[in-house]
Amino acid sequence: MYYNGDMDSCRRIGNLHYACHTGDVTEVGKLIRDGVELDVGMSDGQKPLHVACERGHRLVVQQLLDAGANTEKLDSNSLSPLHLAAIRGYDAIVQSLLDAGAESNIVCPAGTPLYAAVKCGHTSVVQKLLDSGANMEMRDGQGWTPLHCAALHGRGTIVEVLLAAGANLEAREVRDETDFTPLHVAAFYNQPIVVQILLAAGADKEATDRNGCTPLHAAAQRSHKEIVQQLLLAGADRDARSTTRQENCLEMAQKRGNVEIIALLQSSCLTCGSQTSLRCQRCRVAPFCGRPCLKAGWKAHKVSCR
């Protein structure tokens, strides 16, 4: 709610917001002693505590908390002070809010504070929220868990933190009705570090989404050769067929014309087409049956060789 009182009170409330914005501890203390209202929003719905949290003024945040500011008020974007501190990565402010009793599982359309910290890559904030009892399986408005979010954005360290805390490896997301697991997400969005972590943790490489596609299907469809190789080396079934189109990974790659993905799935030389277990010595991915074929195919291959 916004304040509609007398002009002097409005002026003091505006002064408090400005002092919180600039981190003026002295002015904030004076206004608190004068009895200014602490939980009144400006036109953007932000209360003084929101402003101080977003700007990273820890001492001002503590002043407001000690004076009884409400930690659960939302701004016009439905964000709490804890959301804002988590988004910015202010771990000391996050701890102050939690110590003051802020709800770690407060939900907004963008998810919980934990989800916000994961998305923005703030590992220390993620750990503090987990230590406070944040729920790792609560989803954002589109059906993603924090582990899905970490997989999407390639947050390898955070993936490890979430897994160590017991996050569900096989949780299904419902955005776009795909039923992706975190491994599907990492494979589809080309996050090889996360793929490796999830595989090492025992993620099901044969899990199927709503269309019957495995993570290998997802990587082949998107032409992510490193991830295709990772999954094949982990023993993923290259012959598995989707339930909707009845395609295996090779047929999916052939439709998209990616010769290197096709070669990985076929194990055939990119130049002569013969079966081979040899690979380019530089990228160790593309199959060539020997130096003559590598030399002949180098002009086309060097673009993607790394």
TrEMBL record:
UniProt keyword list: ANK repeat, Metal-binding, Repeat, Zinc, Zinc-finger
Listed SUPFAM superfamilies: Ankyrin repeat, HIT/MYND zinc finger-like
UniProt keyword Zinc-finger, yes or no: yes
GO molecular function: zinc ion binding
Recorded superkingdom: Eukaryota
Residue ranges of coiled coil: none
Keyword field contains Protein biosynthesis: no
Domain named MYND-type: residues: 269-305
SMART domains on file: ANK
InterPro entries the record matches: Ankyrin_rpt (IPR002110), Ankyrin_rpt-contain_sf (IPR036770), Dendritic_Spine_Reg/Scaffold (IPR050889), Znf_MYND (IPR002893)
Protein name per the record: MYND-type domain-containing protein
Phylogenetic classification of the source organism: Eukaryota, Sar, Stramenopiles, Ochrophyta, Raphidophyceae
